[in-house]
Design a protein that fits this description.
about 75% helix; 12 helices; two-stranded antiparallel ribbon; mainly alpha
């Protein structure tokens, strides 16, 4: 169980890294249509050097999930097939929009790709949150551990609440990124957006916490079994409170770091609640996919761990260099190139 637990943590880290990094450029997309032409160019310039590298974390996390826990990959991706295809198309459209919007000197052309970028970003943020909500809630599965629900059954009130809360987290994260990477009037408006989004985030997270406690006591079993683990939700609440204070004081840099810490804390909160389950089954806990019954062989997990320990420092080092290189605020320009 040691290797399975290590890979449970590593997959969680990879997915948390995706939410922290791609979360802010998804968040930029949520605010994208609130700006004029010069604002939009500045927004794209702020994320231009890094957005595609951020999405690598999602691909790596999905690949690690496939290799380490293939049964989970099969169950989740088949059960969420339509939702995942919508996410894939949303990611494709937002990526193409970044590259294509300035290729033709036509206002209609730009408006189309601007809308594609905003809708693709919003749909991705919402649907990934809804997927997490369904995992926490538990999926209806048969004896063969196949998901029996439909796409519309995934749109249940609890999952939608988690999706909207996640939407709020991403919106605040993106606004704070704009506040530290832009200048002038756009920066001032980004700080206002962040202030409002952070308050909404705090309210939505409180509602999600209350709904989670009322929904299924199984999500509290680890916390009740090991009381010291309650430090995780306590830390998450404290970080959110500090985030609200930093936003009210206009401390953009500190608030962005706290926003990233909030995402990590929330991800840890969910991971502790789920362990050792990977995909809980609604109703019948015996049908759940766990780190024990869904993992690859010990040999596979060992080889993967060696490769991960060798490769992850290189990826992290490269991305750290990239962010350091493009750390300065962008300038608003009148030309068409971002």
């Amino acid at each position: 169980m040691i290797l399975q637990t290590i890979w449970f943590i590593l997959v969680a880290v990879l997915l948390a890294g995706y939410v922290v990094l791609d979360g802010f450029d998804l968040g930029v997309g949520l605010w994208y249509l609130f700006g004029g032409e010069k604002d939009r160019r500045a927004m794209l310039a702020a994320i231009g050097p890094v957005w595609d590298g951020n999405e690598v974390w999602l691909l790596t996390g999905a690949g690690a999930l496939f290799a380490a826990f293939p049964h989970v990959y099969a169950t989740v991706f088949s059960g969420f097939y339509l939702a995942m295809m919508l996410v894939v198309f949303a990611l494709i459209f937002r990526g193409v929009a970044v590259e294509f919007r300035n290729k033709v000197a036509s206002p209609a052309w730009r408006r189309f790709w601007d809308a594609a970028f905003a809708v693709g970003s919003s749909l991705t943020a919402l649907l990934l949150g809804v997927a997490l909500g369904n995992i926490l809630r538990g999926l209806p599965m048969d004896a063969g551990r196949n998901v029996t629900g439909s796409f519309f059954s995934l749109l249940n009130p609890y999952a939608l609440l988690i999706g909207v809360a996640g939407f709020g987290v991403v919106a605040a994260h993106g606004a704070l990124y704009l506040a530290i990477r832009t200048q002038g009037d756009l920066r001032r408006r980004a700080l206002r957006w962040a202030g409002r989004a952070v308050v909404a985030e705090a309210v939505l997270l409180a509602l999600a916490a209350a709904a989670t406690a009322l929904l299924d006591i199984r999500l509290l079993r680890n916390y009740n079994a090991v009381p010291v683990l309650w430090v995780v939700p306590a830390a998450a609440g404290a970080v959110v409170a500090l985030l609200v204070v930093a936003c009210r004081r206009g401390q953009a840099g500190r608030a962005f770091v706290l926003s990233a810490a909030t995402i990590v804390a929330l991800w840890a909160l969910a991971g502790v609640a789920l362990y050792p389950d990977l995909v809980p089954a609604a109703g019948d806990g015996a049908a759940s996919l766990t780190i024990a019954n869904a993992s690859s062989t010990q040999r596979t997990l060992t080889i993967m761990l060696i490769v991960a320990l060798a490769g992850m420092p290189i990826v992290i080092g490269y991305q750290a260099w990239l962010y350091w290189t493009f750390r300065r605020p962008v300038e608003q320009r009148d030309d068409t190139a971002y």
